[in-house]
Amino acid sequence: MVSFGFAGQGRAIMRGPMVSGVINQLLTTTDWGELDYLVIDMPPGTGDIHLTLCQVAPLTAAVIVTTPQKLAFIDVAKGVRMFSKLKVPCVAVVENMCYFDADGKRYYPFGQGSGTQVVQQFGIPHLFDLPIRPTLSASGDTGIPEVVADPQGDVANTFQNLGACVVQQCAKIRQQVSTAVSYDRSIKAIRVKVPDSDEEFLLHPATVRRNDRSAQSVDEWTGEQKVQYSDIPDDIEPEEIRPMGNYAVSITWPDGFSQIAPYDQLEMLERLVEAPSPAAASAVASS
């Protein structure tokens, strides 16, 4: 590992450009040797540090860490979209300080659903919950990780499953194993091919655009539909479709809107529409 704390004294007080320079130096001048994986712990937010890292290092994937509060979900959504624009797929979600056990019961002091909402909206199916536990906090302070202090415990098991998940998803990304989603202009339909099979189905572009579940289309607090079906023209066509890792695609529309469409949502739309052709899909979308 490497840290600015090894070289400097006290707290680092620097403006954005200086921080970017330090990050660049740490990444490019450290003698890393032969690495299997390089894990970078990023600060919260969507600022210069994240942009610098994505420009300096060819990041394979990102793991989103959040807390159970609804307000935290808003920041996480910004992070997922930022990584999408930088073409870095998100492969897992970790919900920190999720619960604690006492008197034989499990309590969720900050509520539930933030991590699940990330999974549902952005199609990241791997969600890991970490508890509020004094030993977990102490392990970070003492330098003895929980997976070492209690290798058979529940927390260690969660970390091990998270590590295995990241390894597997990075391998899939390198092998480019994903559902192929493309737009066929000749028939004006979005083609979705399921991996490891010959199965393929078609979706009408307007249907996909109208069923966006992001905060720009649906109110995050009330669930009220902000973008009405009539606001989307029947003849709308996507400008670009590109993969976001193994579980979603990013679709850019003519109005400048960038939609994140998880594969399972596309499959759900296909089951709802039950249309073998774009014309049939258009009829359903327009009804």
TrEMBL record:
InterPro entries: GBBH-like_N (IPR010376), GBBH-like_N_sf (IPR038492), Mrp-like_CS (IPR000808), Mrp/NBP35_ATP-bd (IPR019591), NUBPL-like (IPR044304), P-loop_NTPase (IPR027417), YlxH/NBP35 (IPR033756). It comes from the Eukaryota. It holds the Pfam family GBBH-like_N. GO terms for biological process: iron-sulfur cluster assembly. Residues 194-259 form the Gamma-butyrobetaine hydroxylase-like N-terminal domain. Keywords: ATP-binding, Iron, Iron-sulfur, Metal-binding, Nucleotide-binding. One of its GO terms (molecular function) is ATP binding. Belongs to the Mrp/NBP35 ATP-binding proteins family. This is Gamma-butyrobetaine hydroxylase-like N-terminal domain-containing protein.
